[in-house]
Design brief:
The chain is mainly α. It contains eight helices and two strands, in the order αααααββααα. It is 63% helix and 5% strand.
Length: 207
């Protein structure tokens, strides 16, 4: 597997490891709490990322199939163009420019962080499968259509990189959320809540 795809797999591994670490270190109540200043909870960040990846999967499948049929192969380096690079720059944390997510990708009220984490990990695994399926394709020449608009197309490599950058963006947001909750004193006040370590126990027991 080429270095670009291997790097993407490592980035997904790092994102999953961080999410699982947060589930071990914080209670389910903390992970489901929105900061008083507004915004999503940690669990809602996970759900949003999962929904976004899920929306991209059929588009990635279509792009990979079309690229194979057209013989668009190449081992890189790949050209993503100015627009593609700017798009990735916008997505990277810390947040430089707030871009509202489509309403369909907004998380609902998350009452069970364990379920949100399970879906987050599941969709990342599905994304890994698509990354491996793209081996040998020219990630700069194959085009993928955005699930937000059929008129918006960009290189397949940008699509993969965007999913990783989007994950990092919301991992950064999750850390900011926890900092705000800690500053409010909520973590010190909570008593009797189920620890989030049981979240992971439930995940393992159902697999």
């Amino acid at each position: 597997m080429n270095q670009v795809l291997e790097g993407l797999l490592r980035e997904l591994d790092a994102l999953d490891a961080e999410a699982q670490r947060l589930a071990v270190e914080h209670s389910a109540a903390v992970l489901a709490t929105r900061p008083a200043q507004g915004g999503w909870s940690v669990a809602e960040c996970w759900e949003h990322v999962a929904k976004t990846v899920e929306a991209y999967l059929p588009k990635l499948d279509q792009a990979t199939s079309t690229g194979r049929a057209a013989g668009l192969t190449g081992e890189g380096p790949y050209s993503y163009g100015l627009v593609g690079r700017f798009f990735l720059w916008i997505l990277e944390p810390p947040v430089r420019l707030k871009v509202p997510a489509p309403a369909i990708l907004h998380p609902g009220p998350v009452l069970d962080p364990g379920a949100a984490l399970a879906e987050y990990l599941k969709q990342h695994q599905a994304l890994r499968d698509r990354i491996r399926a793209a081996e040998g394709l020219d990630l700069g020449k194959v085009r993928v259509t955005s699930p937000a608009s059929d008129k918006l197309k960009f290189p397949l490599g940008v699509g993969f990189e965007a999913m990783a950058a989007h994950g990092r963006r919301h991992a950064w947001q999750a850390r900011q959320v926890l900092g705000k909750i800690k500053g409010s004193g909520f973590m010190e006040r909570e008593t009797g809540f189920e620890p989030a370590t049981s979240t992971l126990a439930r995940l393992h027991s159902t697999n």
